[in-house]
Every structure is written in structure tokens, then in C-alpha cells.
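Problem: given the chain below (147 residues), write out its structure.
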Amino acid sequence: MTEETWKAIVGYEGFYEVSNLGNVRSLDRVVSSSYNTCPDQHHKGQDLKPFWGTNGPNSKGSIKVELCGPIVRRCCKGVAAIVAAAFLGPRPDGYVTFIVDRDYENVGLDNLIYIPKGLLIRLNSSSETARDNGERDLEKYVSGELV
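Solution.
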């Protein structure tokens, strides 16, 4: 069994962490009133409950969490993209985060890779030939033959 490792969420350092297993948690923090009209509020960190994006589980939607940060008040982020950014590094231009086994609830690091957007288009193509070629290329990305 894989040991759970935690890293700061890019852009939300000091507020949230994500694990290699796809769990997200907030950190203990103190929030000060912007005009010093209220006493400081102490917030205890807790595990965040993910939810399905607007597409839902039956239409290849993604698992999301709602984050609040120092700049953006509220923002929904895909958990797969958060895990990938924290553990794989920045996503290269023209690439997308891909869930290898296509189980959209399985957003652990072991199930994520970056693939070119063109490959994703082929994998979702209505053309059987394009899909077959995409599947062949995907196997090469997963095995590390293509980078």
C-alpha cells in the first residue's frame, strides 16, 4: 500500500495541501479582519469533501474541491490537476492532465500523467481509427516510450 505524502497546493501555499492519493485538506490558520473591527478568527484545518463538477460522473466530469485563497475568494479546482501540479510539476504548454485508467474518482498520483492535447482529442474521436491510434500512443506515454 502506498504511503500518503502531502504537498502544498500551488498558489494556495499555507492554506491547503494535497496528497499523492488525491486527498485535499485545509491547514490551521488565523484570519484577521481587514479593518480590525473583529477579533482574529482561528480556523482548524480539515479534510475537504470533493464533489463532481457540473458534468457529473456519468459524462466524464471531474472531481473538484472548492478553495479560498488570499487573492481569489472562491475557486473550484479539479483534484486531478491539483495532484499533478503538486507532484509532477507544472503542466507543459499544449498538454492536459490525463487519468490513465479513466476512473474519474481515482485521482491519485499513480494514475495521472500529462499528455498532449492532440492525443486526448484522438482518444475522444468518433473515428475508430483515430481512437485506436490514440490508444496505441497512450500506451507509449504510460510506459515512458514517448515523452
